[in-house]
Give the backbone structure.
Amino acid sequence: MSDRHPDPCSAFCETADALRALEGALACARNEAARILAGAYEGHASVHQALQATDLRNEVLVIAGFLGSVEAATAHALARPALKLVEAA
């Protein structure tokens, strides 16, 4: 089974759009996570919500793994002769 997305970005502009969208979503997520933590310090989080936060943290780690692999995947793709011509153009 492949871990690749069934609808990959098919152009540099599509990748740029996806990165901008992710950047905005992460900024919002970072703010919400800080609010949740601040509320938890004040006693405004249940055990269920703490477990839900742990589940979300695990999902963020999966996303971090994807993003951490982009550089290696790009280097691998650029090593193919056909893609070197596209990058040079």
Q: What stands out?
A: The chain has two domains: 10-45, 46-89. The chain is about 80% helix and 0% strand. Helices lie at 12-41, 47-78, 81-88. Residues 46-89 form one domain.
